[in-house]
Amino acid sequence: MNGTVYLVGAGPGDPGLLTCRGREIIERADVVVYDRLIGAELLELCRAEAEKIFVGKEAARHALPQEEINELLTARALEGKSVCRLKGGDPFVFGRGGEEALHCLERGVRFEIVPGVSSSIAAPAYAGIPVTHREVATSFAVVTGHTKDDDAPPDSLPEADTLVFLMGVRALGKIVRALLAKGRAPATPVALVRWGTTAQQEVVVGTLETIEADVERAGLEPPALIVVGEVVRLRERLGWFDNRPLWGQTVVVTRAREQASGLVTALRERGARVIQCPTIRIEPLVDCSTCDDALARLPEFDWVVFTSTNGVEQGWKRLQRLGLDARAFAANKIAAIGPATVESLNARGLVPDFVPEQSMSERVGEGLLAQGAKNVLILRALEGREALQATLQAGGCETTLAPCYRTVPDAAEAESVRTLLAQGALDWVTFSSSSTVRNFIDAIGEEAVKSARGTFRVAVIGPVTAETARECGLEPDVEAAKAGIDELAQALEQSTRRPKEP
Fold first, then answer.
1. Helical segments of 398-497, H only
2. Which of the residues 14, 30, 35, 477 is marked catalytic?
3. Which of 44, 210, 219, 478 has the most CB atoms within 10 Å of its CB?
4. What pTM value is reported for the model?
5. What pLDDT, in 10s, does the model give residues 319-375?
């Protein structure tokens, strides 16, 4: 049975603008054929076994000619595979989606169109430029700035209050002259938006008379779109995306990828460009017998301690394998370290009986001893700190360690971050645990980190992580008051608002 080709609009760049249907297709596709403008975040949605094929532009040329792309799509579908053709913006807005759909039709291959948010409206919106406004613009038109044979606008330009040119940077001079020849005033406002909707967004504003010089002065290169019309003047009041508190800041997140999404989202919502460099990876244990045995004996313990969200998630998987659920903790009191762990427990119907004010193992131990704990089960990583167990045992409490996962070093993104460090292109490196500090230095290299130290700042969660950073020569510039994702993001925001010390 033949497969289906899905022509999916990936949106303008911000991964949050991908449609729900688009995400469904990407997540289940056997083959994903993608262009240059597709971000890494979207490709991470692919199944591990999916075939990913890049056909975008290398310099000024396609990696594959359009005719070969067409054949590739139908050939994979005729093999019975589900094919996602992932295209920037919308597949039918100057995206050659029509050509690919017609080719599918000719080959007898089923196809589906999944519209995407077009950069023609999204990029201006993120620049604070509405393409229409009833006081100054009641119409807009989208025009290609790159015809089939040359970098040039069409001979006949539409009559509209606002004109949006896609793929027109190299034809900017021709576009300006064509508009002036049609009677547009030299003082007509013009804006170019590069990498719109992403943390690399750049905006250059001028007039038809000045814009070529403005762009040359700014060194603006493709990809960018051009907006012409009185609506451009509204950017001065409506600009929002590049006015957020962490705009212009590049932040490295070293948390395990399984844990990083909350922090990544919190930073991006504040305008930061986030570089994910997970220094640890969460893996299940080969032998879970110790954990399984302890969970089967839950009524024997008066307290159960969860030390992290990973402990909750991995411990819950073991619990479910035993055919148990939240009711299994009916005889126990629950302790948790940190607000994220509390949230993870709440999502499973458990409300902790004790959460220390300071997110440290020692404080948990002291708190449980003060409440008369006698027999405590600790669900944690295989490599966890011994401070909690030592504190409890020193107070005469029996303890049982139940490792339910392990953390291993992850250096997959080290090379790219090492390059950015050497270029002085990073503003912040964040650490959420002692292991992320040590593994970051091991992955990047002690000398590379040391030589770049004056070019970036360090932000940490919790006093234990802060102390480890100091021991490793990374004096924290910011320490979150509480051990939480939002608290760390807020700490960066507050610090960035203040002038940096010379």
1. 414-422, 434-444, 446-452, 463-471, 485-497
2. 35
3. 478
4. 0.82
5. 999 999 999 999 999 999 888 899 999 999 999 999 998 777 888 999 999 999 999
